[in-house]
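Standup notes
- HV: blocked on the assembly model, inputs below
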Amino acid sequence: MGIVVILGSGVMGSALAAPLADNGHEVRLVGTHLDREIVEAIRATGMHPGLARTLPAGVRAYQLEDAGEAFAEAEIVVSAVNSVGVEWAGERLAELLRPGQLVLAIAKGVRTEDNGDLRILPDVLAGAVATELRERVGWGAIVGPSIAGEVAARRTSCVVFCGRDEAVVDRLAEAFRTGWYHVWTSLDFVGCEICAAAKNCYALGIGFAEGELEAQGERDSPDRAHDYEAALFAQSAVEIRRWAQLCGGDPATASWLPGVGDLYVTSTGGRNVRVGHLLGQGLSFIEAAARLGHPTLEGAAAIRVFGDALGRLTERGVVGEHELPLMRHLHEVVALERPLEMPWGRFLGGEPARQAARP
Amino acid sequence: MGIVVILGSGVMGSALAAPLADNGHEVRLVGTHLDREIVEAIRATGMHPGLARTLPAGVRAYQLEDAGEAFAEAEIVVSAVNSVGVEWAGERLAELLRPGQLVLAIAKGVRTEDNGDLRILPDVLAGAVATELRERVGWGAIVGPSIAGEVAARRTSCVVFCGRDEAVVDRLAEAFRTGWYHVWTSLDFVGCEICAAAKNCYALGIGFAEGELEAQGERDSPDRAHDYEAALFAQSAVEIRRWAQLCGGDPATASWLPGVGDLYVTSTGGRNVRVGHLLGQGLSFIEAAARLGHPTLEGAAAIRVFGDALGRLTERGVVGEHELPLMRHLHEVVALERPLEMPWGRFLGGEPARQAARP
């Protein structure tokens, strides 16, 4: 049993203390500069305010200035800063990491190169670390359906640890795997991470269904809009598969936990779905974000990145202009403030025109 | 615009009057011997009692003894009898069909041959018709996410019409396709039908999650069991893909509307999920079926068929004994009255043992 340090004391990082503590690891939770009050609360009460749950006995919380002490002797470092803070986290890791440590990243998102190519966040994180050190550290990430509150409550969760080095990924999986926190592994680092980032975009779209129903005055009808959601789910699954392939990953990764599994859980609720709900009601994205109090909307942020990349990849001829019609429309609605008008007929390779289908 | 006759006046068959009427077809709804009161109610009030909705103007309801009159001059015949009644429906079609008519089947399920091979229901239906007539009739089926009440309410639905003859499938799709009832087509008849039948089995399993939570006294916890559902969803998607392949279909069919799309919508509720919920609480299948008043449980019936087939296919060496672990356990719980104990570690090719994973 080793020492595991978690950088970032938000809900997901803190929830991971549960399987780690169950496996007998010493868990050190280091808050960022934004987490000072969380760290103080944990020190004072043992309870994580965001999770509204007492952390496992023995978890020690550190303020950022004590990160050096926390990182000492640690075998595993969890980078639990969200997608907005990945560059910041990379700079901290550049200072704090030591050769031989293993890094496990949990932020979901992507960055775009100037030519439209997408870059996965663990590579952005590692990119901030000097080459010599970077090559002496192991890099991996968690993907798959996993809600922080459920992990903290020790509910059954099935996730995938991914990376490029099998020994690293296996060791990380072994450190976390319990009888309720099930861990599979994948060496398709790019495919896994692209699925994780893209699913936040598509889950936002799932929210449109209920919102449109309300806009049509059908809020109280017993007949919901599950067919609409399911059609978007299927189209999303097809597009996530295509994104994985486009970025050099394995399209098959979209077919299990990292793809349809994570899309399913993200579609059950959360901020991405709520903003979609408001867009479905007819609000513009700016209005919807304001209504929710301008929280961090990772799905909307990812739509901007994927949508921008899609434009550039289409210009370069890497993607056909009729491909990925749902992501194109999500981008139109979220980034370009265009009205929601779902292009059903362009889905799934295109629904045949009625006349053209006549035998 | 032609004449379309629908045999079976249950909710799904009757709901299909909506897109047909929108396209200007004359719709004739023929009740089975079990549907007498439904037909009388429609004739008296224009309203379908199961849908609690007025049918489109011009839809005419017929009692079974007038089926001959209804079938005359019809271009398209919808077989809207449920999976239990497919053999009965086949016998009626054998008497009523005329050369040149097109049949569109909507029942979801499978039958097993003695050796464990599975047979799709449209083939069971067609098998009741004499060869000479059968070959002069076109055969197709509807798959994909489609809830009767939503179709009747003209909610956006995206479905797939499948069959072996492209001209037949295209003509059927053209007759039904509207601006809200979107129809794609597939010539993977076997894959589509296997997906449609298997998803009912797996949706039952999704219900376990909430039931187990309640059994653990966590009914009122804000932390649900969506991770559990999502893990089962992902495993189900993997197994549905394998079933399609095993039966000679295209595994890719599991990746869009007929597979993950239909699984998604079926997992949002309905009797299959409710019986799973009770099993999750700890009831035996017999107790759960009694609690629900012994309704037709198509998911449970399909689990018996797939599970029986799986045993025989495993004996023959067609399937490995570690394959399809979720279907095996669904069969144990539903058909063999064994306690629910989800074999997470056997999913997805097997979670590595903790020790074995050490590099």
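- HV (later): unblocked. Residues 45 and 54 of chain A are 8 Å apart (CA to CA). The first strand of chain A starts at residue 3 and ends at 7.
- Next: hand off to the docking folks.
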